[in-house]
Amino acid sequence: MKKIIFIIYLLLLVQVSAQKTVSAAQWQEDLRFIQNTIHKDYSFLFVKTTKEAFDTEVESLYKAIPQLASHEIKVGITRLIASFKYGHTAVFHGQENIGFHSFPFNLYEFKDAIYIQGVHKSYGKALGAKVLKINNMPITEALEKIAPMVNAENSQYFKAYGINYLSTPEVLHAQRITRTLQNVIELTLEKDGEVFTQSFTAMGDGEWVPTHRGYVHQDENWLDARDQSTTPLYLKHLDKVYYSEYLAEEKAMYVRHSRIQDEAGESTAAFYARVLESVARDDVEKLVIDLRLNGGGNNYLNKPIITGLIESKKINKIGKLFVIIGKRTFSACQNLVNELDNYTNVIFVGEPTAENVNFWGDNRPVRLPNSGIELSLSYLWWQDKPALENAPWIAPSIPVAMSFEEYATNQDPVLEAALAFNMPDFKPKPIEYITALYVSGQAQKLAEELPKMVQDPRYAFCDFEAELNKKGNLLLQSGRAPQVQGAVQVFSMVSQLYPKGASAYKYLGEAYMVLQNTEKASEVLQKAVSLDTDGAIGKAAKELLSELDGY
């Protein structure tokens, strides 16, 4: 009996502890703990923000704490950690010491708008509706208000993982989307040509919208906007880490891989060995690997996938190997995508990935001493590509996004694009191709090919102007005359292709200044100013012109 009483006593202590009030002074102590810990142990995270900006935000929050409610302080800390803009570095709101709530709907951003993809059965009318306003605030404005608190590495991460902060009442108030903290919210929706409002009541403590791979899946309590009479390949067998299916009509092998981890009963290495053996043996002309829902895991499992594909002479060719990526492709799956890009003849299809090409990942839990809130702080740098090739994401060579109607009717335009692809002369990495022509001295072929590729709609995904300027800058920054002469050639080529683009003229002026050709430098810098009189590039060109006066 004494033992039972003691256990009950301990449980009560835990409950009281979990519900204890944190004073303003204690919150301020926690904030100083964060500041000191970041500077002492995680200063390497100051890449996309500065120490000065971080400390300014700390001081602002520190002074405001006595006037803030606890949920506003928690959101303030979330904003602070999100300022590093790395997906693994965050305050995740599902933890018990946060104590936030959720409205019973799941937002999903499709090609055409944001829709209610899933909802509790009590709100069936709202299912599949386009979201126009939240609390009478236009959805675009509401998204801007929550952006500072989302640990988004790029806009894709925000679309996939950030927008559902709009379903949290504490966030809505702290970011001033609502005037007060309220457990009822009104959404303005559009469906079947009708605009209407729908009120939602927040769920209870510890209840969250049951999503899996970003979607609510229909059951006895929850509704999915997708027609349930059939299931598209990318949503089949989501209880499995990976599965394969032969598509006889297209002579294609389809693989859906939704997590970088081993399946119980068949390891990643064994699964891909089996798939590639079938590809080699059977009547297979294409392999499509679908990673659009893959949020990562253990990237040490990627090696057998890469080596197996490299060794597959039948499939490791342009037009034979396709990988579907999207806004939930993240973490260890970003590593996999990077390695596929580095070592195989893959063509990426879909949308850009949710993570930077090189990134800080593998977070540690750091618990605040008073509130008990847990921060997740990255400590490992993952670099699969040279620093000069870092980018916000891996972008697809065949960009395809899904509309809500396509989702609702079980269409898959992304997979269809991969299966229908038949362009033998396609260059999935056009800048690499152009660079190879330049380096090998094939000037005539370069002069013929580049203008055609710039105009070719198949290469609309490539920003030739920005990428070629980047290549020219690499030559310019060397400071050596032969490389700078090469930069002049590159920038001259870009200015011919994009005569209304000020950047190339500004860079060209810098190159001529290095070569001490002041006459040509003045000429092209004035051109840059005329094209961007009031902009940042024009201003930079004016400053360079003022330097020329001192020559």
Give the strand order, joined by hyphens, for the main sheet: 10-11-12-13-14-17
Number of distinct beta strands: 17
The low-pLDDT segments are 1-19
Structural class: alpha/beta
Beta-strand level of the residues, as a percent range?
15-25%
Largest sheet: 6 strands, mixed
Q: Rg from C-alpha positions?
A: 27 Å
- What is the general shape? globular
How many H/I helical runs?
19
| Alpha carbon gap, first and last residue | 94 Å
Helical content class:
40-55%
**Average pLDDT rating:** 94
Describe the model.
- It is a single chain.
- Strand 13, helix 10 and strand 14 form a beta-alpha-beta unit.
- The strands form five sheets. The protein has a six-stranded mixed sheet with strand order 10-11-12-13-14-17, sandwiched between helices.
- Helix 3 packs antiparallel against helix 4 and helix 17 runs antiparallel to helix 18.
- The protein is built from 19 helices and 17 strands.
- With 551 residues, the chain is an alpha/beta fold.
Characteristic key phrases:
about 550 residues, alpha/beta, 4-stranded antiparallel beta sheet
Helix/strand layout:
Layout: H1 2-18, H2 24-41, H3 51-64, H4 70-82, E1 105-109, E2 114-120, E3 130-134, E4 137-138, H5 139-146, H6 155-162, H7 169-174, E5 184-191, E6 194-201, E7 211-212, E8 215-216, E9 222-224, E10 242-247, E11 252-257, H8 268-281, E12 286-290, H9 303-311, E13 321-325, H10 332-343, E14 347-350, E15 359-367, E16 374-382, E17 398-399, H11 404-408, H12 413-420, H13 430-439, H14 443-455, H15 464-478, H16 481-497, H17 502-514, H18 518-531, H19 536-548
Parallel strand pairs: 11-12, 12-13, 13-14, 14-17
Antiparallel strand pairs: 1-2, 2-9, 3-4, 3-5, 5-6, 7-8, 10-11, 15-16
Helix pairs in contact: 2-3, 3-4, 8-9, 13-14, 15-16, 15-17, 16-17, 17-18, 17-19, 18-19
